[in-house]
Amino acid sequence: MTDRTKQDRVVIFDTTLRDGEQSPGATMTHDEKLEIAEMLDEMGVDIIEAGFPIASEGDFAAVTEIAKRAQSSVICGLARAQFKDIDRCWEAVKHAKRPRIHTFIGTSPLHRAIPNLDMDQMAERIHDTVTHARNLCDNVQWSPMDATRTEHDYLCRVVEIAIKAGATTINIPDTVGYTAPRESADLIRMLIEKVPGADEIIFATHCHNDLGMATANSLAAVEAGARQIECTINGLGERAGNTALEEVVMALKVRNDIMPYRTSIDTTKIMGISRRVAAVSGFPVQFNKAIVGKNAFAHESGIHQDGMLKNAETFEIMRPEDIGLAATNLVMGKHSGRAALRSKLKDLGYDLADNQLNDVFVRFKALADRKKEVYDDDLVALMTDSASEAAGDHMQVKFLRVICGTEAPQSADLILTIDGTDQQVTAQGDGPVDATFNAVKKLFPHDARLALYQVSAVTEGTDAQATVSVRLEEDGKIVTGQSSDTDTVVASAKAYVSALNNLVVRREKTKPEDEVKSVS
Ligand code: KIV
Ligand code: ZN
């Protein structure tokens, strides 16, 4: 055992806003990125990878603002192995109390072929770019992309060059989610043993989940001596996603007996940020997802319920409260007051200012008038309804009446308030939702493609709310909208209009300044 493996602190590096956000369809607005960054900072994430500053003006602006606002977390930006990328990255992160530049290049045979560099030319590029980054910032991370498919001798050679050039963290990415736990551990162990200078730096592990092994591979790397885990909330990320923050953090907490490492994460903040990331990214969490899935703490079978009533530990290895899930699902109703709502929302991870509470209270009362019992999940749906954040929106749904039945076509009467003026239309379609969307399109003509239309029931029962998610694509830009209502067609109309409002905002944004392909 090397000295390194005796150190028990594991650094958590969150890349929800970079690797997660670049996943097709998961685009977040500027304000949403700031909000998520603030939540990550508050929950104790050590390093926030806030974006890829050269990718677009929008990314640059978000990383800059996050850097200015961060309280405790190190703020990191991504840069390819090019001086102009590194300079742009520094321009954005330099405002942080604790900035970091993360620069990378693909080192496996397949990736080396892309910039058409031979091994020596690439080694020289690594030396030059890491040196350049280190001249700007004293905290530099370097990644050999596709490390797990890079020849071991070459990997050792380039890692040594990066360390000598001043990298303080070396990240070992499993870019295509190809490795397995034993191999992940062996690779880290090999680098620590063979590379001169390895004792001076931190090794990080960055795993993708293509074979469902990202969490296992990350933990195996830690056991072999890696001391930084790169991860995202809900495992958000391209293809099958990245290592899920909540999984590695809770695994280290719950199985500290066999994995004696600690992180700085306040685990009671996990549920709140998981819900928020799901809402703003438009990627719902699967019901049986470890830690944060809706069913992760549900015990429905008779045997389980019996055991749970006698002793919760019979079937529960962690307490719901540990991840910020309210211990009880106390039902609220139309007689519940403002104070009860505030306290309930606090339990659910939403700490609201007075003006925000007033707005939510009005919507809560409207919901309670239509629905006898308001459950935790109804309140979460209320809080994550993007259509309700409508103050500065281009258009809003004012009125909708749909005539539907066994005889097609169905028809929808719709009034949209567009830039303050009410506009009315009637349209027909194949079903109530189609008729409604056709009506919206008549009032706001556009060519955006409907990439996703998804309906899920928030709770059980025929008066349950439906949450509708809509994803639209126009010229490669993807926007989302989400809304909940006891009427599925109303929720659909609001979600569609919310996505269109986001599209209007997106259209106004500056085009990318450089052809940057996404990197996973
Ligand atoms: O998966 C990957 O290789 C990456 C790098 C940019 C670190 O995300
Ligand atoms: Zn990645």
Descriptive account of the structure:
By secondary structure, this protein is α/β, with parallel strands linked by helices. The chain folds into three domains: 12-257, Alpha-Beta Barrel (TIM Barrel), CATH 3.20.20.70; 327-389; 395-509, Double Stranded RNA Binding Domain (2-Layer Sandwich), CATH 3.30.160.270. The chain has 17 helices and 14 strands. The strands form three sheets. It has an eight-stranded parallel β-barrel with strand order 1-2-3-4-5-6-7-8, surrounded by six helices. The protein has a three-stranded antiparallel beta sheet with strand order 9-10-11. Helix 6 (119-136) runs parallel beside helix 7. The protein is globular and about 75 Å long. It starts with 10 loop residues before the first strand and ends in a 12-residue tail after the last helix. The model is unreliable at 510-515 (pLDDT under 50). The protein binds 3-methyl-2-oxobutanoic acid and zinc ion.
Briefly, what is this?
With 520 residues, this protein is an alpha/beta fold.
Provide key terms for this protein.
single chain; 520 residues; alpha/beta; Double Stranded RNA Binding Domain; 8-stranded parallel barrel; binds 3-methyl-2-oxobutanoic acid; binds zinc ion
